[in-house]
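User: My instructor asked us to take a sequence, write out its structure as tokens, and then describe one feature of it. I'm not sure where to start. Here is the sequence I was given:
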Amino acid sequence: MNYGFETTEYEIINKEMLTDGTVLFHLKGYLDFKPGQFVEVSLPHFGNVTLAPCSNSSDKKEFELCIHAQGSTSNAMIKLLPGDKISLRGPYGQGWPALNFSNGPTAKISRHNLTIITGGMGIVPLRPILLEMEKKVHFSNLTLFAGFKKTEDVLFESDLKRWKKKFKVHVSVETSSPKFWGERGLITKSLQTGSIDKQTTVFMCGPEIMYSHCIEILNEKGIGDKQIYLSLERRMECGIGLCQHCSCGSHLVCQDGPVFRLDKIKQELRIKN
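Assistant: Let's start with the prediction itself. The structure tokens for your sequence are:
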């Protein structure tokens, strides 16, 4: 784990085009990260981008980073090829709560029940959790709500179809093609009509405008703020608390987060009950 500005170089061993402008890089080597943490990836002459590792954190031979072209740096990065090398520092931050599915008062996730809500690229930092849960033979009580703008924006489609065989998976798009296999409409529609256990724990990541609408629905279903965790990773820049760009009230997202329990951050996000 690298703190400060120390970087480590990794070689790209494979590159997948997930959508138009979204690339999944497979990098050689072991990255010691916890799901939900982030790294700062640098490209000489361009700058840095903040990314969340999206592979299974237990993989010792390689890890994966997903990047969507939005600015000059990310547009340059998606043009990299296998054999090229990238430098990164981290991982940083506090990730998703530990997944301990044992019985009794020490259990981190109540009643062996987990609900994951993602919007767009928000599925990326939660993919490691889904990959981990997929390998647990005796665990299937997971519900995933994944929303995207249109059919062409759906990420990790083969994963989603595979997870659908084990978990309750709702994939929705606002604009769908005739052959789309999921649901049509906003993710809030799926959330309103979907069945959610009141004792569930919720992990949520997506555009912050999505949070207030989803939280309102969850609260109406009897799910309290202490059961909901969300990621504010989009706010980060330097990653080590120097630039203060990620300040959210009294919190620095890069150090205190990016994952927060809702009751700890709700006032700062100006989310009303």
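For the description part of your assignment, you could build on this observation: Helices lie at 72-77, 127-134, 157-163, 187-193, 208-220, 253-256, 262-269. Try explaining in your own words what that tells you about the chain.
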